[in-house]
Every structure is written in structure tokens, then in C-alpha cells.
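Q: Second attempt. The first request was missing the SMILES, so the protein and adenosine-5'-triphosphate are both included now.
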Amino acid sequence: MIVVKDLKRYYGSGETTVKALNGVSFEIKKGQFVAIMGASGSGKTTVLRILALLDDATDGEYTIRGLQVSNLPEAERSYYRLTQVGYVFQDYALINEMTAAENVYVLSMMEGKSKKESYKTALEALDKVGLKDKHDRIPDELSGGEKQRVAIARAIAKKPDIMFADEPCANLDTRNSKQVLEVFKDLNDNYGQTIIMVTHEPWHVEYVDRVITLEDGKLVSDELIEESGSA
Ligand SMILES: Nc1ncnc2c1ncn2[C@@H]1O[C@H](COP(=O)(O)OP(=O)(O)OP(=O)(O)O)[C@@H](O)[C@H]1O
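A: Got both inputs this time. The predicted holo structure:
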């Protein structure tokens, strides 16, 4: 589903050039739940942002479902970002003045769907993350884990091809992190959602199918994880 070939991302020029990604290649199959791991500064966020079309590569190719997204004109990239890709960030990126349901359906309304249809989709998405009964709460009335689950509901409401998550549990305690990871795992197991998640927590590995590890902008290991049954 995703093919990445010799991806490079350099920042700056001359002697001060930072090679954030220095020739990374891998393929990700539809329905995989992949963790991208590695030390701070190894290039994890950079690779995620490029695949999520939030940044451009310096060199290399990447295709999503056979579409050479690296070469798409900006208007198509923007449409793709809005409609085909789900994002979950560490700071939730919710709108404080809106309820959970409104935060979820705002994107769908931007696509031109009716309020009634958007609301129905939002409630279904909130149900999938276990928060249907809190649909009318504003973010300040929710725990960190619940806010992150609203952000996940917002991402899945548009039924994305791929969901990208950058350190989604960075601001959460263990209990809330587990709830968020269980939601991801459920979406992956029961709905075949493809998920690419950046994390630096070793214990998160038990929730994923595969771990790609980066070091200094290069891929240093790529492991399939056996289901332990404990997650
Ligand atoms: N906009 C930028 N300008 C210059 N250098 C950058 C920029 N963004 C990232 N870098 C550098 O690229 C390298 C990789 O950064 P990246 O954020 O991908 O690492 P990371 O593995 O996600 O790190 P962390 O775990 O700390 O978030 C780092 O050396 C970083 O300083």
C-alpha cells in the first residue's frame, strides 16, 4: 500500500546540513499497524510528516496505493490530506470551544456533507472509541486520554486509507496510554485500519504488528511482532 524508496530529507545546506533522513526504504501493507521507533532526532517525525503529505522529501520516491503522491500538485495533495488521511498528534489539536461531536464532524462539514449526516458519522466514530456518551462535552471536561480518543474519532470519521499518529501517548499516563493504544488496536484488528505510529516507548510494541527502527536517518531494523495475546 505504501512504498518508500531511498527517501532523503536534508535541512540546511553546506557544512551545516542535517540529514534527517538519509536513504530510507520500506513497504507497508494495507491493514498493518506499524510503529516507527528510534532515539530522539533519528528521523521518526520527519518520515511520518513526509508520508502524511505534511512535508516534502529532498529526494526519493514514495507511493500510496500506487499513486506517486510525491509528485502530486499541491491542490491534489491538499484534497488527499483532507479526505484520505487521518492524523493524530500528541497535543490532540482539538478546538476548545466545540463539543466532542462538533470536533469530530467539523471536517466532514467542510467536505460539504449535511449537519445531520456529519453528526451521525461523528456519533458512530465516538462510539468506536468508547465515548458516545460524552459527545456533548467540551475538551476541558475530558481527560487527556479521552481528548486523544476524540482526536482518533475525528481521524476515523473520514474513513481514512491510512492513519498517522505522532507520539499519540506522549502526554498521557500509562492508564490513558493503554486506552488509546487499545482503541488503535481495535481499529486495526476489527476494521483493518492501516496505522503508522511514531513512539519511543518500548512497551507500546506489544500493540503493533511491526516495528521499524531508525538511527541517524537510516533504517536499522524492521521486525514483525508476534501476537503475545496479552495486549
Ligand atoms: N525544520 C527543521 N529544520 C532543521 N532541522 C530539523 C528540522 N526538523 C527536524 N530537524 C532535524 O532533523 C533530525 C530528525 O528530526 P525528527 O524530528 O524527525 O526526529 P525524531 O526521531 O522524531 O525525534 P524526537 O523523538 O525527538 O521527536 C533532527 O536532527 C532534527 O534536529
